[in-house]
Design a protein that fits this description.
By secondary structure, the chain is α/β, with parallel strands linked by helices. It contains 5 helices and 7 strands. The two termini are 13 Å apart. The model has no long low-confidence stretch (mean pLDDT 92).
C-alpha cells in the first residue's frame, strides 16, 4: 500500500517510516510532485492536519495522511500552539523559537507544557483523526542534539532527559507523534485485515 505523508520534513518522514509496517510505502510531497506550500491557516492543530490531508487528496487524488504538531505551554495560555513552527517569525527557526519561548517564560514559575500531534488520515473516502499528547516541562537551557523543533528544552513527565538527548527510537516510543502514529498504524492493520 502507498500512502502520501503530506510533508517534506525529512526528520518527520524518517521518524514515521520507522514506525509504519514495511508493507506500507510512505511517499513525500516531493515524491508526488507537490512543490507548492500547502496552506496551514486553520486556527487549531486539528484543523491544520485536516486542511493538509484534504489538499493532497483533492488536488492529487492520493490516500494521504498529514500531521500538525504544537507545543502548548500552560503559563502562556496554550501558546505557541498552532503557531509553534513560526513562533518567532516566518523564518521558522527552531533556535529563534526556543529563545523566544524561554524569554517569554522568564517570569513564570509554571513550566508545564504538552506536545500535541494530530494526524488526519484520508483513506478510500473515509477520514480519521488520531491524537497523541505528551505532558512535560520546559527548561531554560538547550540540552541535546537529537530531534528537532523544541526538543532541546522539553523534558517529558517522569523523564530526566530532554527529547533532544534521546535516541530517535526512545523518543518515538513515548512522544506525541509516536503515540498518534501508533494509533494510525493500528488503524491501518485493522483496515487491512
Amino acid at each position: 500500500m502507498q500512502l502520501v505523508f503530506a510533508s517534506n520534513n525529512q526528520n518527520k518522514i524518517k521518524e514515521i517510516q520507522k514506525l509504519i509496517p514495511d508493507n506500507i510505502q510512505i511517499l513525500s510531497l516531493e515524491d508526488i510532485g507537490c512543490t507548492e506550500e500547502i496552506p496551514e491557516t486553520a486556527p487549531t492543530i486539528e484543523g491544520n492536519a485536516i486542511q493538509k490531508a484534504n489538499y493532497v487528496t483533492q488536488k492529487y487524488g492520493y490516500n494521504c495522511f498529514a500531521d500538525d504538531t504544537g507545543l502548548e505551554v500552560n503559563a502562556l495560555n496554550g501558546a505557541p500552539g498552532v503557531y509553534s513552527a513560526r513562533y518567532a517569525g516566518e523564518q521558522k527557526s527552531a533556535q529563534d523559537n526556543m529563545d523566544k519561548l524561554i524569554a517569554n517564560l522568564q517570569h513564570h514559575t509554571d513550566r508545564s507544557a504538552q506536545f500535541k500531534t494530530v494526524i488526519c488520515l484520508n483513506l478510500n473516502g473515509e477520514q480519521h483523526l488520531f491524537t497523541g499528547i505528551i505532558k512535560g516541562t520546559i527548561i531554560d537551557e538547550k540540552i541535546g542534539t537529537n530531534g528537532f523543533g523544541y526538543d532541546p528544552i522539553f523534558i517529558a513527565e517522569n523523564g530526566t532527559q530532554t527529547f533532544a538527548q534521546l535516541a530517535m527510537e526512545e523518543k518515538s516510543k513515548i512522544s506525541h507523534r509516536g503515540i498518534a502514529v501508533q494509533q494510525l498504524v493500528q488503524h491501518l492493520h485493522n483496515y487491512e485485515l
